[in-house]
Amino acid sequence: MSTPHRTAVAQAFAALSSDDDGRSCRDISETACNAQPQNFLRHAGALGLSKSADGLVDPKLVLSWLMTHLGAPAALIGLLVPIREAGALLPQLFTAARIRALAQRKWAWGVAAFGQGLGAAIILAAALALEGALAGSVILAGLAVLAVSRSVASVAYKDVLGKTIDKGQRGTVTGLAGSWSAVVVIAFALTLIFFSEARALIVAGALALAALAWLVAGGVFIGLAEDKGATEGGANGVTDAIANLHYLREDSQLARFILARGLLTATALAPPYLVMLASGGPGAALESLGALVLASALAALLSSYIWGRLADRSSRRVLILTGLSGAAALVMTLVFAALGWSNSPIAMPLALFLLMVAHQGVRLGRSTYLVDMVGPDLRAVYTAIANTVIGVILLASGIFGALAALAGAATAIGLFAVMAAAGAYVAYGLKELGDGSDD
Q: pLDDT tens for residues 317-366?
């Protein structure tokens, strides 16, 4: 590497990071510390590309619109989010031990990124060449490839991050990736708004860009300078998950928490039905796709910090509030539809914005509560149990919602509103773990 290049990398690292101690590192090797400037930029680039691609292939909105546009049955559209979310959770039971056996786990993330690119390419092929139920089925198959690949990336990433980036820089690099990828998604939304007559072409282009982004991300990530790590200690995830299910019987709070979290998945499962309702049914053109994507992106940007602050005070109250607000947003959706405002450029995006604000709160509240409810010795076990059970609940809820959608998108939305409200009720019975008990 040339000296000017080294200097440019070091300057970029200094400008973007919170590194105040020069070359001093606290919990990574000296070799990793020396390579940290270029590793920092690779992490920010690869993770940002992956997050950008996630936004361009968002199952809740983009793929829901695409399948509606192609005339896929409502029951298939309703399976988008369950396949995406459960597919990212359940395979970890089978892949974690194999990934642990790799001395350098950057290869797992890189290959997983290529797999996500393949999944996006399959979806693109279906969008260009197929229609109806066949298009929907192939899109779901491509999404399954993408989701399983994502599960591998999720298992590998935290370990690679811990080995290549020092403790004081990890939040900075992931935050940087999230920030610039959010700009990409907002630009995508604005493109859909200003060039709405070319929605189908723009969505196809977004799928192609997402596939390319994941391929480039994999290549960038594989270039990380990663030390070889320990390969022992990889347990059988399936065996452990079954063996640890007794905690559900022994800890009523864990069981209640998982039930509340399962019911609150309504905030993730409902958006595709909102898209169908706003479209007027399969095959109809949704005029406000860009506004919906923009509303979702802005909800994440504007609410995450506030929910995080509230979760630090009382994650239990966050779960209650998000359940109630999610149910209110879904009822609002039904009211707008009853008033004939489904195609309004403001009404449905407003309802989705409020629903996605609630969803961000669910994500932050559930993770904070789980961390706070148990000590470090059992935290990993409880997380594995929760992820396994929630993966099954997602699949079951998705199938149930898809069946309800046979009676119409409004019926499915009503079902999810009830689920969200029930989630708030169950969360009310959780123990108070934060500072909110002192109020």
A: 999 999 999 999 999 999 999 998 887 788 889 999 999 999 988 988 88
Res. 89: pLDDT tops 90: no
Domain(s) of CATH 1.20.1250.20: residues in the chain? 28-225, 235-432
Q: Domain 235-432 class?
A: mainly alpha
Residue type at 399 in one-letter notation = I
Residues 6+ apart with CB under 8 A from 257: 366, 369, 370, 373, 386, 430
Q: Which of 139, 162, 166 is nearest to 22 (CA)?
A: 166
d(CA 207, CA 193): 17
Q: How far apart are CA 411 and CA 142, in angstroms?
A: 28
Scored b (16 or more CB within 10 A) or e, 272-286 reads bbbbbbbbeebeeeb
Q: In CATH, what number does 28-225 get?
A: 1.20.1250.20
CB 334 within 8 A of CB 410: yes
Q: Which two tokens stand for residue 282?
A: 């399969």
CA 115 vs CA 88, 144, 425: distances in Å: 13, 10, 40
Q: Tell me if the pTM is above 0.85.
A: no
What is the sign, positive or negative, of the torsion defined by CA atoms of 316, 322, 323, 324? positive
Letter string b/e over residues 371-397, b meaning 16 or more CB atoms within 10 A of that residue's CB: ebbbeeeeeebbebbbbbbbbebbbeb
d(CA 424, CA 418): 10
Q: Within 13 Å, how many C-alpha atoms sit on residue 83's CB side? A: 25
More confident residue, 400 or 65: 65
Q: What 8-state DSSP symbol labels residue 286?
A: P
